[in-house]
UniProtKB/TrEMBL annotation:
Transmembrane segments: none annotated. GO terms for molecular function: ATP binding; galactokinase activity; magnesium ion binding. It is an enzyme of class 2 (transferase). Residues 286-365 form the GHMP kinase C-terminal domain. Mg(2+) binds at S129, E161. This is Galactokinase. Residues 93-180 form the GHMP kinase N-terminal domain. GO terms for cellular component: cytosol. Catalyzes the transfer of the gamma-phosphate of ATP to D-galactose to form alpha-D-galactose-1-phosphate (Gal-1-P). It catalyses: alpha-D-galactose + ATP = alpha-D-galactose 1-phosphate + ADP + H(+). It comes from Halanaerobium saccharolyticum. Keywords: ATP-binding, Carbohydrate metabolism, Cytoplasm, Galactose metabolism, Kinase, Magnesium, Metal-binding, Nucleotide-binding, Transferase.
Length: 386
């Protein structure tokens, strides 16, 4: 639907109050490199994708908020003074969470109607939830003319997911959805929350995302297990080396290797992944800045190997997708997201993309009996008013 069609739909859905209105967008994202580094105070490097959520809204003269999900064809209504978790309409909680956090800042809001639609695959690790939070924040803040900078808004959207939705996510998803820029990835330091735009200069390449369509079943329990193994490693190194070590971020590979024989095998392997992955993110930033895309691709393959063998969060299907990419001569490929399913991210020459997708679809189906889904994207813009 184009802008006019969306406004026509909005007009049929809600009464016109002749008050401030606007239309906003926020994208999903894919993490290019830096996996399982965020909770180790390390680095991540996502980019925004050309899939997004679009939201239209208009203020109302009372305390009511009405949300219409175009994709689910569902309407809900609440009062600004009594926002509570909605067990039935889960999607509405992402929106309420953001409103709740804005109200916590002390801003006095008035009611509004909003309608939204999106094309980010949901629950596939491309962060449709962060896009929904960020686009809501853009919408509500702009309609009320509240002053809040990009970082503050990203952190507010993260708090909405932590506090209202109840998912303990890090900062990456909301940061990139809010702060991403066309033609750039974003290097985020998860210790300081600082970020830098990283140019993705070579227009001969694009990013191809392959969805394994394997449900990320084991994620929660394995995630907690990995976190605790990382904590064990930190405790060990803090005792052996220096009490200033508070996260795996503070170690280099040499130190990890030095204690290989003293560490439990799993703990060594987890530390090895995180420490080497942090180094790969920094190397990737340099490679992209120097326009050395092939080098960046090699780092992506190395990241996958480390996630699969050392961190042990891949699965057969993700490994197959990465092997098929290597077979097809693609420059870079790795699993992306927490693992045990979800997507791979691939660095592909534009003129080879069609061929690559054909190979993936055919051979993945043959080996797994699953139809992979494939999305193509250049590094896209972050949230904006349109
Ligand atoms: P992910 O963020 O990886 O896509 P999540 O489970 O964190 O997966 O978030 C997905 C949820 O976000 C959906 O179940 C839904 O509640 C909400 N959501 C995302 N996109 C939309 C949309 N276009 N319309 C309605 N709800 C959406
Ligand atoms: Mg999410």
């Amino acid at each position: 639907m184009n802008k006019q069609e969306l406004w026509d739909n909005f007009g049929r859905t809600f009464r016109d109050f002749d008050l401030e209105s606007g239309i906003y967008k926020a994208p999903g994202r894919v993490n290019l490199i830096g996996e399982h580094t965020d909770y180790n105070d390390g680095f991540v490097m996502p980019m925004a994708i050309e899939k997004e959520i679009t939201m239209l809204a208009q203020l109302r003269p009372d305390r009511k908020v009405k949300f219409y999900s175009l994709d689910y064809d569902q309407m809900v209504e609440y009062n600004l003074d009594s926002l509570e978790y909605d067990e039935e309409n889960i999607w509405a909680n992402y929106i309420m969470g953001v409103i709740d956090e804005i109200q916590k800042l002390g801003s006095s809001l008035q009611g509004f109607n909003l309608m939204f639609t999106g094309n980010i695959p949901q629950g596939s690790g491309l962060s449709s939830s962060a896009a929904l939070e960020v686009v809501t924040a853009m919408t509500v803040v702009d309609l009320h003319k509240i002053k809040i900078d990009g970082i503050e808004m990203a952190l507010l959207a993260q708090r909405a997911e932590n506090n209202f939705v109840g998912v303990q996510c890090g900062i990456m998803d909301q940061y990139i959805s809010r702060l991403g820029q066309k033609g750039h990835a974003l290097l985020i330091d998860c210790r300081t929350n600082d970020y830098q735009l990283v140019p993705f200069k070579d227009e001969n390449y694009q990013i191809v995302i392959c969805n394994s369509r394997v449900e990320r079943g084991l994620v929660d329990s394995k995630y907690n297990e990995r976190r605790s193994e990382c904590e064990q490693a930190v405790e060990f190194f803090a005792e052996k080396e220096a009490s200033e070590i508070t996260a795996l971020r503070d170690l280099d590979l040499e130190t990890v290797e030095k204690y290989k024989d003293e560490l439990a095998e799993n703990v060594y392997k987890r530390a090895h992944h995180v420490v080497s992955e942090n180094a790969r993110v920094i190397e990737s930033q340099k490679a992209l800045e120097a326009d050395e895309l092939k080098k960046f691709g090699d780092l992506m393959y190395a990241s996958h190997k480390s996630l699969s063998e050392d961190y042990e969060v891949s699965c057969e299907e993700l490994d197959i997708l990465v092997s098929l990419a290597a077979e097809a001569g693609v420059e870079g490929a790795r699993m992306t997201g927490a693992g045990f399913g979800g997507c791979t991210v691939n660095l592909v020459k534009k003129d080879r993309t069609e061929q690559f997708i054909k190979i993936i679809k055919e051979k993945y189906k043959k080996e797994t009996d699953i139809d992979a889904e494939v999305y193509i994207s250049n590094p896209a813009a972050g949230a904006r008013k349109i």
